[in-house]
Amino acid sequence: MRARGPRSRREPTIALINIVFLMLVFFMVAGTLSPPLDKDLALVSTGDLEGRPPPDALVIHADGTLSYRGADQPDAATYVAELDTEVRAEVRIVPDRDLPAIQLVALGRDLRRAGAGTVIIVTERGLE
After folding, report:
1. Alpha-carbon distance 1 to 126, whole Å?
2. Is the residue at 117 inside a domain?
3. Distance between CA 103 and CA 111 in Å, rounded?
C-alpha cells in the first residue's frame, strides 16, 4: 500500500464569489455612480412656492379647441382681449394630456403675442 501524501485542501470558490459580489454591491451603493456637481452650486428650493388651484385657467383640449369656464373660445387673442389687465399679466393654461406639444407651444406663443405677460402651464402635479 502506498501512503497518501498530505491532502491539499481546496478553497471554496463559491464563498469567494459571494464575497466579491457583496463587495461590488456595497461599493456601487456607497459610491457615486455619476460625477458630482460643482461644489459652489446651490440648487433651487421649491418648497416655498405658492400653489394655487387654477379657477380661471384656459383649457386646451386634445383636439386643440379652447374653453374658459365651460365656454368655447375661438382663439387665444379673443381670450386675452376679454381678460382684465391684472389677470392678463399671468395667464394659466391647462392642457389635455393627449395634446401634441407643438400645439401647446403654439398656443403659448399666441397668448404672448396677444398681450399675456406670463404663461403658466398647469400640470397634474400642480393641481394637487
Report:
1. 87
2. yes
3. 12
- Using CA atoms, how far apart are residues 82 and 5, in angstroms rounded to an integer? 102
Instruction: Provide the edge-to-edge strand list for the sheet that holds 90-95.
Output: 71-73, 66-68, 57-60, 90-95, 118-121
Domain span at residue 96 reads 57-127
**Residue 100 confidence class, pLDDT cut points 50, 70, 90:** confident
- Does 110 have pLDDT greater than 80? yes
Q: Which residues does 103 contact at the CB level (< 8 Å), separation at least 6?
A: 60, 64
When divided into structural domains, the chain yields a total of 1
Let me know: does 104 contact 95? Beta carbons within 8 Å: yes
pLDDT tens digit sequence for 37-68: 667 666 656 566 565 555 678 888 888 888 88
In a domain, 14, yes or no: no
Report pTM.
Answer: 0.53
The runs of H, that is alpha helices, within the chain are 13-30, 76-81, 85-88, 101-114, 124-127
